[in-house]
Structures are given as structure tokens and as C-alpha cells.
Design brief:
It is built from ten helices and 45 strands. With 811 residues, it is of the alpha+beta class. The strands form eleven sheets. Strands 14, 15, 16, 17 and 18 form a five-stranded antiparallel sheet that branches. It has a five-stranded antiparallel sheet with strand order 42-43-41-44-45. A four-stranded antiparallel sheet has the order 1-21-20-19, with no helix packed on it. The longest helix is centred in the N-terminal third of the chain and has 31 residues, at 2-32. The model is unreliable at 1-17, 603-624 and 704-732 (pLDDT under 50).
Length: 811
């Protein structure tokens, strides 16, 4: 009987052991396949039968870590380390990471120290990260962080990208919004939604399911659109709802490129030529012009894990992209770097390796593809102990969006999308008309120089934006029928003045004058000129520029009191009556005297004829003083020029045009020295011609077309109305090819006009832009490097051989 009982117990033990082994194999297989939810269920069953198996407990803990359940992960790691059976030492590293995910930085530091005894490099690196997090965890955030109401769900919501200033596209695994296609099962697979900003509620809400009637469009996102919203780059993914988007979760990504329609949808797509079945490429950000793309990839040859790369468009087809270039060690690390977003100055990206607070953190680096600055953590608030990534930013509104799987703070579950608002005071810019002080609605506020977009004023003539501690750029304000003007904005200038007022002058109402020192007869800069209409009592103010000149928007047949004031000078008042016809020189020349001077002011309304003067000396220019080759400032290129439209520029020089390749190039000139032309270029840009740039001119070609008085001075005169022809552009010597355009309105000459002379050449239906004037290859190389640093990433050196432009292979 006893023998039978022993045999029965032995049989039960064998059956139990076999069952446990089978359960362990099943759990391990699911763990290896990254099916973490299924692995958790199987490990729990197995551990219930084998409570001493520490390795199974550690794998269970790791499964919890992959689905962001850090508390459960930490508890099972601790049980694993207390179990009789030894565990793989790698779990000490993962245990420390789970502790980081709970914000337990001191305890995490101890575990990383422990792991450093096995792997000093890895252990000590994460020890330093834990020290960083513990030291900086209580710092005040520079951003106000809020979850986006009406958008986040219990499912994964991630990958927000700008579709236009008022709308975002994002990916979600939500199942409450179905497709029109009856074949859709409702199974949670991430798909794309278009959301719109609701001004009344201040929320972003889903308004459209992209690909609504296409049942196959799942597992898509993030995406990225070009500025014209015609090109879209798509990441196809294998993300599982609730599983973290980290490389150890087994994510496989591929990129596709397509032409989008007006609502963000697309039909046909082409695979990115550098995809591979052996590695991933995803999380792409296409630059506004569609000519370069930043993305993450774990392709061979990187620094480890996912690195960030850039590729340049080399043709019109989707498969015409250059070999991906790694951004280098200031960005990429042995860890994972993903979700790049480059605004032209700052690269934002997420990393698991740079010093952070746990999981992915968001970092920023200033620079370009030639040289990137040190990566800097965006700080607590944007970053948390959990995964924070996918950061995008609107520099004008000082707002951005990012993805996080953090707990609390309004989290709806899994990944959620958060809004980050820079905590800085709002600046109000009001645009008014110079003649009657009425607000100007729909005036263009152009932040292009700041690389932040173009906006409009509201019905009250107002536009509000948030100050930036790194702001330093020029903003152009313009409206049809008015003269453009500009503002130089900086964080320093906005510290004490957050209510800006801009006066736009109607075309045809600008009256110009000159203020000089009565003792020296030199023009005075910085003189405040206050004008008040005696009939309406409406007033406005101008300041003299470096040439002592100012502009006032005076009405016809009106009486004005004009006051001139400058620190160190005696104030002076004048009465001015305008006539019924426009006469721009009515204000003439006004002399004011320094305090203490005894020189009388005998004629405070002496003639100011508007003749061009050299910017540095204020002297009129004689023809015989000009060299054979001079310089001019080009302000426009048009089919039918009307020089009267550019009358406001006559004060800076002769306004004329030259016909080149059937286009009439409107220019101001000529000037003997390039430095003189540079001063005029600055003044012309202040007048609103932001694309003005310097060109070389053959003096005789120009002056033969300008009416000169008998004394030989180049005065205002009357520019010719006859088309003239500039000699064929000299395409010899070294030059730098910048880019090719179907529409040259996308070419910003102001970025490169200080590097050399700007030239262009037609090639098929494209216009190729160059900078030239380099006598040596080294000069051209330096110019190419500068061009790349400011955004012309595909620039290269060329030279002419036998009438053909050929690329120069640099050593």
C-alpha cells in the first residue's frame, strides 16, 4: 500500500513538473515574441506552481516594465532577487530603470552601482543619470504642462504633428471612432486622426478620421507634412496598444512618402529607398520645403540602438533620397534616439541615454548638420520619470505638444498627448494706420526671419505672441496699399515693453525729411519727430535713421505741428502745410542745435532734394568718382515694372531696372563700394523689401540709362523707362550651387547675399540658384559650409568648363 502511495506521489510530481515546464516554455516564448500581456498571464501561472524560480519572476517583472506598470515591475524584481534560484545580472540594470520610472532616484542609483560591478561602463553611466535626476528633480519647470482635453483616451494616443497652424494630426488606438467600412472589426490598431483647435474651449478635438473608408490603413504613425501640406512622410509600425515604444519591445518601423490632399489623406505611397527588412526607419520629420528629412533608425553603422539620421531629396520621385547621414555623437549615443523635430535652428529629440529623469526624455540641440551643440535636457515638466517623446514646438505661440505615458497629471491611460506652453509673458502687437490711427485688420505679421511662420492681425489690428528668451530676429509687417515696415525683436527689448504699436503708412502719403546738426551739417540719427494734425489732433511719431532721414504719413491739404527732439539738443517746432498734390520733399532739411551751441538756425526749412548720398559720408556721388564696376541693391524682378511703385526708395539712390532673361530687375544704385551698397540694402529692408540683395553692376551700363544734370552728379533725376540689357551673367570661376526651384519665391536671398553674388540659371523647368565671386576653391568651400549651416543642406561647389557647370569633388 505504501509503495502504491509513493508511486502515485511520484507520478503527480512528474506530471506537475511537466506541466510547469510546459507553462515556463509558453511564457518564455511569449516574452521573446514581445507579447508581454500574454507573457504576464503565463508567468503568473508558472510561478504559482514554482515559487522559487527567480528568473521567471524577473522576466515577469520585465514584462510589466514594458507595459509601463512600474510598481508591479519593482515588486517582482525584488521577489526575484530574494528567490533561491539565481537570476541573470542584467535584471539589476532593469530593476534600476524601473525604480527611475517611479522617481526613486536614490534607490535606483544604488542598484546601478551594484550593476557596475558586472558592467562598469553601463552601470556607472546610469548611476550618473540617477544622480542627475535626483539633483534636478525639484527644479521649477519653464513650461506649463496640460493633457489635451477631448483628445486623450484610455488607449494609446501619440505622435502629434502640425498639419497647419490650427490643426494637428495624431495616431491613436482608440476604438470609439469607427470606420465607414463594414469590414472593420474594431480591434485596437493605431490609426490617424485630424484634430482642430477650438478657441472657445481651448482644446484640440478629433474632427476627422483620416482614411475613414479604407479598412487597411492601420498601424500608421507618426506622420509629417511639408509646409505646403502636399508631401507627407508616413511611419508604418507594429505598435501594440499599451506597450511602450522602446526598442526592446520589438518595434519594427518603415517609412513611406506620398502626396497628400487638402485634408491630409493620401492614396498612393512609395517606400523610402533606405528601408530594410533587417532594421527599422521611422519617426520622420520632413522639413518645410520638403527637401530634407530627419528620422530615427537602428541601421548598422550607428552609435547604438536607434540613432537620428538626415537624408536629402535628390529628385522628383519618392525614391530619390540621398544616403542617410548620422547626426553624430552630440546627438546620438549607445542608447536610443527617436522623434526628431528640427525648426531650422533647434533640433528636438528624445533619448534614453543622455542624462534624464527616466525612460525617454526630450532634449534640444542648437546647430545644423555640420555641427550640433551639446544636447540639453528640456527639464522637468516636459520630462518625467516615464517616457516623454515626440516633442513639436510652435515658436511664435510658444506652445508645443509631446507624447508621454506618465501617471497622474490628468493621464487617461497608456500614451497621452500633452500641451507644453512656455511660461512667459504675452506680447501684444497692434498695427494702426498712420493717417488716422485706425486699427488695420488682416495685416501680415511675418516671422519668417525667426523661422516661425506668417500670421495676421485680428479686427482690432492685434496679434499676440509669447516672448522667447532666445528671440532675436526681424519681423516684417505689411498690408496691400500700405508701405511695409519692420521690427527688430529680442528678449532684451521686450523685457520692459510688451505692448508694441506699429504704424503703417498708406502708399502715396509718405513725406520724407532730413535732420542735421546745425554746427556740423552732419545728419543726425535717433531724432524723435512728433507730428500732430491741427484739424483732427491725430498724432504720430517717427525716428531718424542713420542717414538722418525720416518719413511721416501726412495727408493732403492739412496743417501740422512737427516737433524735433533728441537728448542733448534743443527742441524745435515747425509748422508744415501740405498741398493738394503729393510733393515728397516738402519737409525739406531741418537743422537742430546741440545744447550750449550759439550757432543760429537761419533756415530751418532749407531744401532737401532727396539726392542719393553715400551712407558713410552723406556726400553726393559724382560720375567720375565711380569705378568701372559698382554695386546696386536689387529689390524686385517683374514682367512689367512700374517705377512709381518704388518712389519711396529714391531717397537711397536712383531707382532703375535692367532686363535679364526677360525679367525686369528693379534696382537702387549705383554705389562705388560694396560697403555703401550694404548700408543701402539695410535701409531698403527696413522699408519692407525684405528680399533685397546686392548685385555687381557695370557702371557705364547703368549711368547711360540715367538722366544726369549738367554738373555731372548722379541725382534723383528720372530713371529710364526703356528696357536695357545686362551683359550675360559671368558664370566663370568657382561658385556654390545652393538649390533648384520650380518657383523662386521659395528662395530667400537674404540668407546668403552676404556670402557672395547671387546668380541664377534656368535648367529645364527649374531655376538653379548660385552664389559666386570666389577666386579660389578654398573661398568657395568656406561659403558652401556657411550656406549649409544656414539651411542649404544640399549646397556644393561648382565651376564652369567649356560652357558647362560641373560639380567640384572636394578632397
Amino acid at each position: 500500500m505504501k509503495g502504491i502511495l509513493n508511486c502515485t506521489l511520484l507520478l503527480l510530481f512528474i506530471i506537475g513538473s511537466s506541466t510547469a515546464t510546459l507553462a515556463q516554455r509558453k511564457a518564455n516564448k511569449q516574452y521573446e515574441l514581445k507579447a508581454f500581456n500574454l507573457a504576464i498571464s503565463s508567468y503568473l501561472k508558472y510561478i504559482n506552481q514554482n515559487p522559487s524560480n527567480g528568473e521567471a519572476m524577473a522576466n515577469l517583472a520585465d514584462s510589466y516594465r514594458h507595459i509601463n506598470q512600474m510598481q508591479e515591475a519593482v515588486e517582482w524584481y525584488e521577489r526575484a532577487f530574494s528567490a533561491p534560484q539565481r537570476v541573470d545580472p542584467k535584471h539589476y540594470l532593469n530593476y534600476g530603470k524601473a525604480l527611475m520610472g517611479l522617481g526613486k532616484y536614490e534607490q535606483a542609483a544604488r542598484e546601478f552601482r551594484r550593476y557596475a560591478q558586472i558592467d562598469p561602463e553601463m552601470g556607472n553611466h546610469f548611476y550618473e543619470m540617477a544622480v542627475f535626476a535626483n539633483r534636478n528633480n525639484l527644479l521649477r519647470s519653464k513650461f506649463a504642462i496640460t493633457p489635451v482635453k477631448g483628445l486623450n483616451t484610455a488607449a494609446s494616443d501619440f505622435g502629434a504633428t502640425y498639419f497647419d497652424p490650427e490643426r494637428l494630426v495624431y495616431s491613436s488606438s482608440r476604438t470609439d471612432v469607427g470606420r465607414g467600412n463594414s469590414n472593420w472589426t474594431g480591434k485596437a490598431k493605431n490609426q490617424l486622426f485630424l484634430t482642430e483647435y477650438k478657441a472657445q474651449s481651448g482644446t484640440l478635438e478629433p474632427v476627422k478620421l483620416i482614411h475613414e473608408r479604407q479598412s487597411s490603413r492601420y498601424s500608421v504613425g507618426p506622420v509629417s507634412y511639408s509646409a505646403d501640406r502636399r508631401m507627407v512622410v508616413i511611419t508604418r509600425n507594429n505598435f501594440i496598444d499599451g506597450t511602450r515604444h522602446i526598442s526592446s519591445s520589438g518595434m519594427k518601423l518603415d517609412l513611406y512618402i506620398a502626396t497628400a490632399n487638402y485634408d491630409g489623406d493620401w492614396n498612393e505611397e512609395e517606400a523610402f529607398p533606405w528601408n530594410s527588412g533587417n532594421f527599422s526607419s521611422g519617426f520622420a520629420h520632413i522639413m518645410p520645403d520638403g527637401n530634407s528629412m530627419y528620422f530615427a533608425s537602428d541601421r548598422p553603422g550607428g552609435l547604438g540602438g536607434f540613432d537620428i539620421y538626415v537624408s536629402y531629396k535628390t529628385g522628383t520621385k519618392g525614391d530619390s533620397w540621398s544616403t542617410p547621414e548620422n547626426l553624430g555623437p552630440n546627438i546620438n549615443t549607445p542608447g536610443d534616439e527617436i522623434t526628431p523635430y528640427f525648426d531650422g535652428r533647434t533640433l528636438y529629440f528624445a533619448s534614453t541615454w543622455h542624462d534624464g529623469y527616466g525612460g525617454y526624455d526630450v532634449f534640444r540641440s542648437e546647430g545644423n548638420n555640420q555641427q550640433w551643440g551639446i544636447a540639453r535636457n528640456m527639464g522637468i515638466g516636459i520630462n518625467s520619470p516615464r517616457d516623454d517623446y515626440g516633442f513639436i514646438f510652435d515658436g511664435v505661440r510658444r506652445e508645443g505638444y509631446f507624447t508621454s505615458n506618465r501617471e497622474g497629471e490628468g493621464s487617461a491611460g497608456s500614451e497621452d498627448i500633452y500641451r507644453a506652453s512656455r511660461q512667459s509673458s504675452e506680447v501684444s502687437l497692434r498695427v494702426i494706420a498712420g493717417t488716422d490711427q485706425r486699427p488695420i485688420d488682416q495685416a501680415i505679421v511675418d516671422f519668417s526671419d525667426c523661422e516661425r511662420g506668417v500670421f495676421e492681425t485680428d479686427r482690432q489690428g492685434l496679434f499676440a505672441f509669447k516672448a522667447d528668451d532666445q528671440l532675436n530676429c526681424r519681423v516684417i509687417i505689411r498690408k496691400q496699399g500700405y508701405l511695409s515696415t519692420s521690427l527688430q525683436l529680442s528678449a532684451l527689448s521686450l523685457q520692459n515693453n510688451r505692448n508694441l504699436e506699429v504704424v503703417l503708412q498708406k502708399e502715396g502719403t509718405q513725406y520724407r525729411g532730413l535732420v542735421e546738426d546745425v554746427d556740423t551739417n552732419l545728419p543726425l540719427e535717433g531724432v524723435r519727430v512728433n507730428a500732430r494734425n491741427r484739424r483732427t489732433n491725430v498724432g504720430f511719431t517717427a525716428m531718424t535713421d542713420e542717414n538722418g532721414e525720416y518719413v511721416l504719413p501726412l495727408g493732403n491739404s492739412e496743417d501740422y505741428i512737427i516737433e524735433f527732439s533728441k537728448v542733448g539738443y534743443s527742441n524745435l517746432n515747425r509748422n508744415v502745410t501740405t498741398g493738394s498734390t503729393y510733393n515728397r520733399s516738402i519737409l525739406g532739411r531741418t537743422s537742430i542745435r546741440r545744447v550750449g551751441s550759439s550757432t543760429p538756425i537761419t533756415d530751418n526749412n532749407s531744401s532737401f532734394d532727396g539726392n542719393p548720398r553715400t551712407p558713410n559720408t552723406g556726400q553726393a556721388i559724382r560720375l567720375e568718382d565711380l569705378p568701372t564696376t559698382s554695386y546696386a541693391v536689387q529689390v524686385a524682378a517683374t514682367d512689367k515694372p512700374n517705377l512709381n511703385s518704388y518712389a519711396d526708395l529714391n531717397v537711397h539712390g536712383n531707382v532703375y531696372y535692367m532686363t535679364v532673361n526677360k525679367l525686369n530687375k528693379v534696382r537702387v544704385g549705383v554705389f562705388p563700394d560694396k560697403s555703401d551698397a550694404e548700408e543701402v540694402r539695410k535701409a531698403v529692408r527696413k522699408a519692407g523689401y525684405k528680399d533685397a540683395f546686392i548685385v555687381p553692376e557695370t557702371t557705364r551700363e547703368v549711368v547711360d540709362k540715367i538722366v544726369l544734370p549738367d554738373d555731372g552728379y548722379i541725382t534723383e533725376g528720372t530713371s529710364t523707362n526703356r528696357p536695357t540689357t545686362t551683359p550675360t551673367t559671368n558664370m566663370s570661376g568657382y561658385k556654390v550651387q545652393l538649390a533648384a526651384y520650380r518657383d523662386t519665391k521659395y528662395f530667400d536671398a537674404s540668407k546668403v547675399d552676404n556670402l557672395g553674388y547671387i546668380e541664377q540659371m534656368r535648367k529645364g523647368d527649374l531655376t538653379v540658384m548660385f552664389i559666386s565671386g570666389f577666386s579660389t576653391l578654398e573661398e568657395a568651400r568656406r561659403a558652401m559650409q556657411q550656406a549649409k549651416r544656414i539651411g542649404f543642406n544640399s549646397a556644393f561647389v561648382v565651376m564652369e568648363e567649356n560652357g558647362e557647370i560641373k560639380r567640384v569633388n572636394l578632397p
